[in-house]
Amino acid sequence: MATVNEAPRFQEDAEGMRGEEMILNMGPQHPSTHGVLRLVMNMEGETITRCTPVIGYLHRGMEKVLENRPYMGGIRYVDNSEYLSPMICETAYAGAVEQLMGISPPRRAQYIRLIVNEMQRIASHLVAVGTYLLDLGAFTPILYAFRDREGILELFEEVAGSRFTVNYMRVGGVLHDLPVGWLQRLETWLDTFEKNWHELDVLITGNEIFMTRTQGVGYIDPQEAVAFSLTGPILRASGVNWDLRVQRPYDAYREIAVRPVVREEGDCFARYMVRMYEMLESVRLIREAMAGLPGGPINTRTPIALRPPRGETYFAVEGSKGEYGIYLVSDGSEYPWRAKIRGASFSNLFILPELLRGNKMADVVAILGSIDLVLGEVDR
Question: How far apart are alpha carbons 380 and 376 in whole angstroms?
Answer without folding.
Answer: 5
